[in-house]
Amino acid sequence: MRVTRDFLRGRGRERMTEAEKDALEAAVDRVETLPARTIVVNRGQRVRYSTLLLEGTMCRYMDARDGFRQLVALQVAGDFVDLHGYPLEMLDHDVGTLSEARVAVITHARLDALTRDMPHLTRLLWRSTLLDAALHREWIFRLGRLDAAGRVAHFLMETFHRLDAVGRTDDGRFALPLTQQDLGEACGLTSVHVNRTLRRLREDGLADVARGTVRILNAAGLARVAEFEPDYLYLEDGAWARDAAE
Amino acid sequence: MRVTRDFLRGRGRERMTEAEKDALEAAVDRVETLPARTIVVNRGQRVRYSTLLLEGTMCRYMDARDGFRQLVALQVAGDFVDLHGYPLEMLDHDVGTLSEARVAVITHARLDALTRDMPHLTRLLWRSTLLDAALHREWIFRLGRLDAAGRVAHFLMETFHRLDAVGRTDDGRFALPLTQQDLGEACGLTSVHVNRTLRRLREDGLADVARGTVRILNAAGLARVAEFEPDYLYLEDGAWARDAAE
DNA sequence: CGGAGCGTTGAAAGCCCTCAACGTTTGTGG
DNA sequence: CCACAAACGTTGAGGGCTTTCAACGCTCCG
Q: Of the candidates B18, B22, B32, B149, which lies 20 to 30 Å from A182 by C-alpha distance?
C-alpha cells in the first residue's frame, strides 16, 4: 500500500499529480508502528521530522496546571500529524498516540528539497496545515459557544465526516478509541458530564457511543444540536455530501 | 513607510532577506483605509486577494445561531490577516475590522509568482499562517481549561505580547478597541460576566481595562491566573523576554 | 481471580448566565 | 454649546448548567 494513499483524501487530493505523489512517497524515511498511549513529540522540542499517520488515532494536546490536558486536535488516517513542526521548527504542544498507530516518518531535510523544487506540492502541503487551522477554529467555536450536548455532538459529527472522507466509516458507525475522559479533554468537560451527555444523546436517539464505537443514529438531529456545518472541512462532494444535499 | 515593516516583526523576521522584503513589497496591489466595524470577507466567499494589516485592529469570527459570534482571532499591525485564504481559496469564517484599519492588499495572482520563484519566502509565508494556528491552539486551551478570570487574563497577556513585538505598547499600556461584548465574544463569556471579571482583575491589582486602554499592573500575577506561557508566540528574545528571564 | 481502569449514578456546591434596571459615555444634530 | 439618543458599562437577584465529591458496578487483562 502506498503510504500517501489517504493524504488529503477527500479534501482536495485530486489536485495532486502522480509525480507529486511519487515525490512525497520517495521522501518517506521509514514506516513505524507506535504503541497506544505514548508521547511522540514534547512541547518545546526541536523537531527534525514529521509524521504521516497511516492507521490509528493520535492527538495533539496541551497540559493544564490541574493535571488535566486539553486536546487541540484529533488526528486520523491520512493526516500529516505534525507538519506544523516543519516551518515552525519546534512545537507549542505535545503529540501522542491514542490507539496503536502506524506512521510514515518524513525528515525535514527531505521536505527542504521538495519545497525547493515543487512549488505546487508545497502549496498542497501548506494547504493541509491550513485545513488543521480551520479545524482549530471550529474547536474554538465549539468550546466558546456550545453547551455540553452541542460540543459532544459537534465533535462526533466532525470526526464522522473526517473518517468518512478516508473510508473509515461503515453505515454511520466508526471506531473511536477515546475514553470518556479523553472526550472530556477534547470538549472542555469533565468525564462525569461527558457520561451524562452521552446518555442524553442516546436517549434522544441521536448517537450511541459505547466501547470505542460510535453510531450516528440521527445525523440531522445531531447537526442541529451541534450547529454543525461541514464546509470548514473543505470536503470534496463525496457520497455523504450528495446524500445530505437531497 | 514600507508596508512590510511589521510583518513577522519580532517573530522570526530576521530570516527574511532584503530581496524577499522587496519582492513582498512589490506584490502589494494597493493600500486602503477601512472604516471601523465593517465586514471585509464573508464566510464561504471565494477570495482572490489577501490583506496585510498595517495599522488598526481586525478580527476573524464565526456566527452562532443565537446571534452572538465567536472571535477566532484578533489581528494587529503586521498580521497577514487572511493569508489562509490563499491556499484554501475560500474562508470558513468572516473577517472584519474592529477599529479603523489601514491595510495593504496583495492579490493571489502575485502570490502565485512569489511562491513559484522564491521557496524561502514561501516558507516564511507558510510559517506566518502557522503562527496563527499556534494562536488558535492556545485559544482552544483558554476556552477549554480556564475559568473566566483566566480566560480574560490570558487574552490580555497574549495581546500585550503581540503588540509589544510590533512596538505598540507603552510601559505596560496598550490600546485595545474592544467593547466588553467583544471581549466576551473572544473569551466565550457574556458581556456582563466580562464586566465582573475585569472589575475583579482591577481589584486584585492585576490589570486595568477601561475606555479602550489596557494597563498591565502585575504581569507575573496575570500570567499565573492565565497559566500563560508565551512560547507559543514564537517571539524572538526581545526586551520583554530578557526582563522576564531575570 | 484479583486489580486497575473505565463507566455510571446521586447529591450538593459553584460558576456563569439571564433578566432587569440604571448610570455613563459617545456621537450627532439642532 | 447643548440636548438627546444610542451604545456601552455597571450592578443586583435568581436560576441553570456543569463541576465536585463520593460510591459502586462493569470490563478487561495479567
A: B149
Give A1's pLDDT tier (boundaries 50, 70, 90). low
Beta bridge pairs of residue B59: B74, B96
Whether the predicted pLDDT of A209 surpasses 80: yes
Closest Cβ opposite residue A129 in set B60, B130, B185: B130
What are the strands of the beta sheet with B28-34, ordered from one edge?
A: B28-34, B101-107, B49-55
Contact (CB, 8 A) for A8 and A79:
no
In order of B4, B61, B128, the CA distances from B47 in angstroms are 21, 16, 19
Other Cβ atoms less than 10 A from the Cβ of A103: the count is 25
Q: pLDDT exceeding 90 applies to what percent of chain A?
A: 89
In this prediction, residue A238 has a pLDDT band, given cuts at 50, 70 and 90, of low
In the numeric block, the cell 458581556 is attached to B191
How far is the C-alpha of B89 from the C-alpha of A210, rounded, in Å? 39
Closest partner residue to A115 (CB to CB) among B87, B123, B130 is B123
Q: Which nucleotides of D are covered by protein (CB under 7 A)?
A: 7-13, 17-22, 27-28
The residues that bridge with B49 in the sheet, in sequence order, are: B107
Residue A101 has pLDDT above 70, yes or no: yes
- Percent of chain A whose pLDDT exceeds 70: 95
Rounded Cα gap, residues A72 and A136, in angstroms: 7
